[in-house]
């Protein structure tokens, strides 16, 4: 009996050592071929800029090409679903954002993926800056002035790039916390909404800085705050809305994700390489130029915890605003 047990122990030890050797070998050989990064939106957009700036630096660090694969559709859910079905070997990644991964679970009864089960969060990589903008002709220069101004109006209309989009939900969050009653006017994209902001048909938007900046620089619109919990280094003179409404904060975050079964050794390698890439001056320079602030995570597990907390918070905001969308 003792001989049998000893044999079993030796066999189990051999199996464990074999698995450990396989994991170590996978990490050492990774990447064995070009890496594909799925981009959920069209080329030249913010997510594309994030992927390309990181990808070029990662290619230099890893010695393998990093190829962008733009797969727009379903407000980012198409590319996100593709990652869930990809081989879990670290050679297919995703620039995933707050919309498909933290907001959509609260908006839709059913998704073609499970945000918590199907993905391995690697690290947060960027904050796309959203700014509260008003028509310059209003004379409003601060969030407090806007709140006081809006309370005197019979109707205040806020525009968005579409129902359920980040800027729509920020507007809903703002009017609840500011105790305002505003009318939501959805558009098919932020560009058309900003045109009506300039004309005066809309009174406020929570637009991405990169789309609003031509109108801001032209003097037609005025940015009066950022939506993030704190001021952003790329726009240091703009206050955070939390300075007027304590506790307010809406982060338009993006991160890198792998399929859920990706070996932990590869996830850890990616985390270390991406963290190094984010510190490269050229990455920061190119992202800052279009209103994006590089941002990291303390670890993959910390990023996963951040996403869970953000998902729960958006679910509460969506329920309070009574928003429900169909696929």
Q: Say how many strands there are.
A: 11
**Major β-sheet profile:** 6 strands, mixed
CATH topology of the largest domain: D-Maltodextrin-Binding Protein, domain 2
Strand content: 15-25%
Q: How many discrete domains?
A: 2
**How much helicity do the residues have?**
40-55%
Report on the structure:
The chain is α/β, with parallel strands linked by helices. It has helices at residues 2-29, 46-62, 77-84, 98-107, 143-151, 166-177, 190-199, 209-217, 264-278, 281-288, 300-321; strands spanning 35-39, 66-70, 92-97, 119-128, 130-135, 157-160, 183-186, 204-208, 221-226, 253-259, 292-294. The chain folds into two domains: 36-126 and 261-321, Bordetella uptake gene, domain 1 (D-Maltodextrin-Binding Protein, domain 2, 3-Layer(aba) Sandwich), CATH 3.40.190; 130-243, Periplasmic binding protein-like II (D-Maltodextrin-Binding Protein, domain 2). Helix 2 (46-62) links the parallel strand 1 (35-39) and strand 2 (66-70). Helix 2 crosses helix 9 (264-278), helix 4 packs across helix 11 (300-321) and helix 6 (166-177) packs across helix 11 (300-321). The radius of gyration is 22 Å and the shape is globular.
Short description:
Helix content is 45%, strand content 19%.
Compile the SSE list and pairings.
Elements: H1 2-29, E1 35-39, H2 46-62, E2 66-70, H3 77-84, E3 92-97, H4 98-107, E4 119-128, E5 130-135, H5 143-151, E6 157-160, H6 166-177, E7 183-186, H7 190-199, E8 204-208, H8 209-217, E9 221-226, E10 253-259, H9 264-278, H10 281-288, E11 292-294, H11 300-321
Parallel strand pairs: 1-2, 1-3, 6-7, 6-8
Antiparallel strand pairs: 3-10, 4-10, 4-11, 5-8, 5-9
Helix pairs in contact: 2-9, 2-10, 4-11, 6-11
């Amino acid at each position: 009996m003792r001989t049998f047990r000893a044999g079993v122990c030796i066999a189990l030890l051999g199996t464990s050592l074999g698995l450990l050797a396989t994991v170590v070998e996978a990490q050492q050989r990774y990447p064995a071929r070009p890496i594909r990064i799925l981009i959920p939106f069209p080329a030249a957009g913010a997510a594309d800029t994030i992927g390309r700036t990181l990808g070029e630096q990662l290619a230099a660090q890893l010695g393998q090409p990093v190829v962008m694969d733009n797969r727009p559709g379903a407000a980012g859910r198409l590319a996100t679903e593709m990652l869930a079905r990809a081989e879990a070997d670290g050679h297919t990644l995703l620039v995933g954002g707050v919309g498909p991964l933290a907001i959509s679970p609260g908006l839709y009864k059913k998704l073609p993926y499970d945000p918590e089960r199907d993905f391995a969060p690697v690290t947060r990589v960027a904050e796309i800056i959203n700014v509260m903008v008003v028509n310059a002709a209003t004379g409003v220069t601060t969030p407090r002035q806007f709140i006081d101004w809006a309370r005197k109006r019979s109707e205040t209309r806020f525009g968005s790039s579409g129902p359920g989009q980040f800027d729509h939900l920020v507007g809903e969050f703002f009017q609840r916390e500011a105790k305002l009653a505003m009318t939501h006017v959805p558009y098919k994209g932020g560009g058309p909404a900003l045109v009506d902001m300039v004309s005066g048909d809309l009174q406020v938007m929570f637009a991405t800085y990169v789309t609003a900046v031509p109108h801001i620089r032209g003097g037609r619109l005025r940015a009066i705050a950022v939506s993030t919990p704190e001021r952003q280094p790329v726009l240091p003179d703009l206050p955070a809305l939390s300075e007027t409404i304590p506790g307010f904060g809406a982060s338009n975050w993006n991160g890198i994700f792998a399929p859920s079964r990706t070996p932990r050794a590869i996830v850890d390698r990616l985390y270390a390489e991406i963290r190094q890439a984010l510190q490269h001056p050229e990455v920061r320079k190119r992202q800052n130029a279009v209103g994006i602030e590089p941002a990291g995570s303390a670890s993959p597990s910390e990023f996963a915890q951040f996403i869970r907390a953000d998902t729960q918070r958006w679910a509460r905001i969506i329920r309070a605003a009574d928003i429900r969308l169909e696929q």
